[in-house]
Amino acid sequence: MHRFANPTQFLKLARVILPIALAIMVIALLSGLYYALFSSPADYQQGDTVRIMYIHVPAAIMGMGLYGLMGVASFAGLLWRHPLAHLTAKAAAPVGAAFTIVTLATGSLWGRPMWGTWWEWDARMTSVLVQLFLYMGYMAIWQAMDDKERAAKTAAIVALVGLVNLPIIKFSVEWWNTLHQPASIIRAGGPTIDASMRMPLALMAIAAAAYATSIVILRIRAELAAKRVDALQFAQAQVGED
Amino acid sequence: MFENMTHGPFILASYAVAFGVFISVGVASWRRAKKLERQAESLKAQVPSRRRKKAS
Amino acid sequence: MSAFFSLIRRDLSLAWKHGNALLMALGFFIIAISLFPLSLGPDRETLGRVAGGVIWVSALFSVMLTLERVFGPDHEDGSLEQLTLLPLPLGMVALAKTIAHWIIASLPLVLAAPLVAVALNLPLNQVGILAIALLLGTPALSAIGCLGAALTLGVRQSGVILSLLILPLFVPILIFGAGAVEASTNGTGAQGALQILGAISLIAIVLGPPVTASALRLAME
């Protein structure tokens, strides 16, 4: 694993993975959209509105998953001072925030026709909103601090403290009797979603993961380049002084 | 296409918002990466030439 | 150990001497609460319904206002470095600071809340629940607040980013604190919420100071 800690090694790996991830994303997205919009049935209760689920659920999964990645990367950065760790967390944050925003927006657009309400302050929706605030706070720290070393460690602490929100999101629908529907995929008795809906859901989830992989790789590349630019500008200033 | 067209706008809006957000984040990330990598390349080209001038 | 208590006493006497900050936070608390009857109208029943939430939110904002003064002045005049030289682990220094902050900033609110609650027409037995809830929840506010203050120490316009950081963390305390009053109003009983509040405070007091200490070390590098 430490082989990839070297930025050059990472860039070599990224050059291979990025096109593959993009290809997977396109294939999964096109086939997923086909199934989601045309080839799968409307829900007998919800009608066609259920098709929003094919965006909402993968977005929710990725929003939480990327926060988990951010937490693990932050932990690795603090504990092992892995050079790429903090940059990975920094790269993942905007993507996770985007997924969280889409989760909230599509949830709202799904809720209005289905359950008559744009928004409810129930446990799950509130804790997903809190997840968005946590992402924003994380990104604000990088913005606000000029000392990037301190920013990295401070942001890492914030990311770790916020990890407690993830189980709250997951279990909130079980702990509190709320509006949001209870778990139907990862639950004790096995999934309760109809098989015809599992295919588009799985394809869209794969597309989301492939997208996230691609964009996070891109952003890590940007961070590494920014570091090189800083170092080179510093070296230039040094040479200029002589 | 959809049986229940009264909810069509909500479905359309959901997909539109999602694509809008993801495409903008993707494009912005790609452009930032390209810009910084170009900048790094051009800076790298400059530094050795100055070192050469200094040595002579 | 005596260093621990003298540190608390030092912060208390500093706050007493520069009494302004203390009074300002309390003043803000009362003024903020007063805005609600002015904006919602004087209907006593409405006010009684929202009193618990209004008082809790105002308490949160008042606590946030006081946080920049926890480490800020010490950092500016160099005494923060001196504190690290004490024969006291930095985590204990952070705990002392947290306790001092609670006494200075939160305790006045806990004491003032019943009076304001009655002014907002909160029924008397709910006033009692509110006071207990604030007593149980404010230590967590101080612990999390001091952590946030340490993380943003010395940052430009730290107030804004401090609020952005700790408000999400304050949310559970707010939910259970105001929820306790709500539960007592509609008869379901406040014990559950109060117990959870106590647990949150306990965890915050135990885990907060060590992380605050790390954040202080980061700030002083």
Write a structural description.
The complex is a heterotrimer of chains A (242), B (56) and C (221). Chain A has 242 residues and is an all-alpha fold. Chain A has one domain: Four Helix Bundle (Hemerythrin (Met), subunit A), CATH 1.20.120. Helices cover 77% and strands 0% of the residues of chain A. The model of chain A has no long low-confidence stretch (mean pLDDT 86). Helices cover 86% and strands 0% of the residues of chain B. Chain B contains one helix and no strands. With 221 residues, chain C is mostly helical. Classes of the chains: A mainly alpha (242), B mainly alpha (56), C mainly alpha (221). Chains A and B meet through helix 2, helix 3 and helix 7 of A and helix 1 of B.
Main attributes of the structure:
heterotrimer; B: 56 residues; mainly alpha; 1 helix; rod-shaped; C: 221 residues; 87% helix
Major sheet of chain B: none
- How many helical elements of chain B? 1
The largest contact between protein chains, plus residue counts on each side, is: A-B, 40 and 33 residues
Sketch the topology of chain B as an H/E string, one letter per element: H
Topology overview:
The complex is a heterotrimer of chains A (242), B (56) and C (221).
Chain A: H1 7-39, H2 53-80, H3 85-115, H4 123-144, H5 148-162, H6 165-175, H7 195-241
Helix pairs in contact in A: 1-7, 2-3, 2-5, 2-7, 3-4, 3-7, 4-5, 4-6
Chain B: H1 8-55
Chain C: H1 2-17, H2 19-40, H3 44-66, H4 68-77, H5 79-84, H6 90-119, H7 124-151, H8 158-185, H9 191-220
Short description:
The complex is a heterotrimer of chains A (242), B (56) and C (221). In chain A, 77% of the residues lie in helices and 0% in strands. Chain A has 242 residues and is an all-alpha fold.
